[in-house]
Structure formats: structure tokens, C-alpha cells
Amino acid sequence: MKSYVINLDRSPGRMQRMADRLNAIGADFERVPAVDGRLLTDAQISDVYRPVPGAAPMTPEEVGCFLSHRKCWERIASGQDAYGCVFEDDMLISKRAGLFLVEGSSWIPGDADLVKVESVVGRVWLDRTVHALRDGFELARLRSYSFGSGGYILSKPAAERLLRATKVFSDAVDHVKFNPACGIASSLKSYQMLPAISAQTQSFYPKGSPLIEAPALAAHSDPRFPGNLMEKPWLERKVLQALRRMGHRLRRHWRTEVLFADQPSAFAGQVLDCTSTVIRT
């Protein structure tokens, strides 16, 4: 399975760091020159981006970031592999990532359109059925919105679908893939890897650490969340939040934080070398 690393021409140091890590684990990878949003003309942006009335407009950098991801999807869609892995260039890659990036994709469930291999801040809702992988890693269906597009695996058919659906887009790439209210996320079967084999430096290192790299690809706008509960009056918001939590629990989903595999606590309480399917309660 080939990995595709999105990298701006003006950020050679980031690419060198990513190349060092991917070479160390023996991964097959390709640099994908990022679209620099700062250099896009108004005409180039209007060709692909349709603003939503009343919503914060995407920044030129976000448009460039989206186009950069589409370049990776094009490579996956036209390639020979069943899956391809996409990384942005500010990611930390686990020293154990080779377990999944080097030895093929047979570990990926046959119905998976997308596997998120990135750790994120906050908790997500997951399906109660957990696929146990080698060395203590697990997979579970993602059942809630999860921001971030720094590390994910995409199937060839899903790449083709995303390309067809995003010839013109209105939302940032995270939302099109993971937010059911924006794009085709509700029709994608997405899984989360636990723990994750990649993490953004800003979500892994302590705030203020000199090791944190600011995202190079995008200066973010205020994202559009159709039906965002935070825009509701306090009482209505609390009631709707409680109803959503109840809905997840009735469907026996479970909520957890996604840790990075190189964190000391990432495998606490997990059984190693298990290859079965288990049910989380």
C-alpha cells in the first residue's frame, strides 16, 4: 500500500522529516506537490468553490488544501492498489506504522471505504463491534464526526466517489469526508484505528512546545456545521445533546479518546496479538 505525502514546495524540511520516518519503517511513499492556496487566483478558486450563503467562507489556503487532497485521491483512483494512505506533512508517524503500511491491506475490513489512522483531540463515538488487529491495535466503525485529514487510508472506489462528488465543493475537506451534514460522509463506511499510527504535532506535544509545527497547508475559517448545537439556546442545546448521547447509547456505541500509538498509555488494558472480533460494552 503506497502512502502519499502532501507537501508544499516551500516546505522542504517537512518533507525530509516525513521521508526519514517513512523510510525508517520501510514504507513505499510518494510526495504529492501541494496546491499553494496563497498562489490561487480568484478565478481558479471560483471554478471549484461555491460559498454557502450565511456561512464563513473557506480561505484560499483551505481551497488549496482540498485540491491537494484531491490530487492524492486521483492517484489512488488511477493506481493498482486497493487502498492508498494519505498524510499531510505535519504528522508524526509511529515507529509501529510499518505493521500496517508495509505488509499490504489484508487487515482492512472488506466493507471499509476509509480508515482514519490519525489521533485527534477529544472523544469520538465508535461502533460496539471492534476488529482486533495484530500487536494490540484495533479497528471500529466511526459513528460521529471526527475532524482532521492528516492521516487516513482510502479505498480505490471511495477515491473515485469523492472525486466525482467534489468537482465543486462548499466545505473543507475534513467535513466532506467526516461530517454527515456536509457531503457524502454519511454514505462512507469509515473506521477508526485504535491507537492511531499518526498524530499532528500540535495535538501530541504540550501546548507551547517548540516541537509543534503549525499546519502548513491551511489557514482555517470558522467551519460550517449545519445544525450546530452551539448555535442553539442553552436549554435547547442541552436537551439535544442529551438526546444525541441517548441515541448513541441505545445503538450501543461507545465513546473514547483516540490516542497516538507511541504514547506510553496507548495500549493500557489491551490484549496483545489478538486477531478476533470482539464486542465492546
Helices and strands in order, then pairings?
Blueprint: E1 3-7, H1 12-24, E2 29-33, H2 42-48, H3 60-78, E3 83-88, E4 91-93, H4 98-101, E5 114-116, E6 118-119, E7 123-132, E8 138-142, E9 151-155, H5 156-165, H6 173-178, E10 190-194, E11 198-200, H7 201-204, H8 234-250, E12 254-257, E13 277-279
Keywords:
281 residues; Spore Coat Polysaccharide Biosynthesis Protein SpsA, Chain A; alpha/beta; single chain; 3-stranded mixed beta sheet; 10-stranded mixed beta sheet; 28% helix
Q: Quick one: biggest sheet? A: 10 strands, mixed
User: How many helices in DSSP terms?
Assistant: 8
CATH class: Alpha Beta
Question: Would you give the CATH topology?
Answer: Spore Coat Polysaccharide Biosynthesis Protein SpsA, Chain A
Tell me what the CATH architecture is: Alpha-Beta Complex
Structural class computed from helices and strand pairing: alpha/beta
* Fraction of helical residues: 25-40%
Overall body shape: globular
Number of extended strands: 13
Share in β-strands? 15-25%
Using the CA coordinates, give the radius of gyration. Answer: 19 Å
> How many domains would you count in the coordinates?
1
Average residue pLDDT: 85
CA distance, first residue to last residue: 33 Å
Q: Give the SSE string.
A: EHEHHEEHEEEEEHHEEHHEE
**How would you classify the quaternary structure?**
single chain
Q: Return residue spans where pLDDT drops below 50 for at least 5 consecutive residues.
A: 271-275
